[in-house]
Write a structure and sequence with these properties.
The structure is a single chain. The protein has 3 helices and 5 strands, in the order αααβββββ. A hairpin with a 5-residue loop joins strand 4 and strand 5. The protein folds into 2 domains: 69 residues; 75 residues. Strands 1, 2, 3, 4 and 5 form a 5-stranded antiparallel β-sheet that branches.
């Protein structure tokens, strides 16, 4: 009987020991996976930082190109008053030129900072009402140093059925 009890105790001890060994290996495997995941995350962070630097460089390049594009050679040639920036700023308050109706209760307006001078006589303005986006082409003429006359040439607005 003592031998049976001893055998049972020995089997129980071995089972617990085996369980601890298996759990220990599982923990070790999980710890190895955690280390691999941390390494992977660090690599992803490095890649993300590289992408952010590339994005910033592209944004700066884009700004430089826009700046070059926005140099208006004709401004001095035509002896225009004020500046191109002042001309575009004056356009921001010309919402009465917009020939479109807003949708869902919106009122169309010229989006500040999104207008561009096309050439010595024409400009483009982005128009929106909070729901839809369109655009208008305008002709501009200087009346004097502080006044500009704007005339609608054409525009587009999404069709709403």
């Amino acid at each position: 009987m003592k031998r049976l009890n001893f055998s049972i105790i020995l089997i129980v001890i071995l089972a617990f020991s085996l369980g601890f060994i298996v759990r220990g290996r599982q923990i070790t495997d999980l710890e190895k996976q955690v280390v691999k995941l941390k390494t992977h995350i660090e690599e992803q962070d490095k890649d993300l930082q590289a992408m952010q630097l590339t994005f910033e460089a592209l944004e700066n390049e884009k700004k430089d190109k826009v700046h070059v594009q926005d140099t208006y050679w004709f401004w001095e040639a035509y002896d225009y008053p004020s500046s191109p920036e002042a001309l575009l700023k004056s356009l921001e308050n010309q919402n009465d030129l917009i020939p479109f109706e807003g949708v869902l209760g919106g009122t169309p307006f010229i989006v500040p900072g999104e207008s561009k001078i096309i050439d010595a006589y024409y400009a483009y303005a982005m128009v929106e009402d909070g729901h839809m986006v369109g655009g208008i082409i305008l002709r501009y003429d200087f009346i004097n140093d502080k006044q500009v006359e704007w005339q609608l040439v054409d525009g587009w607005w999404p069709k709403v059925d």
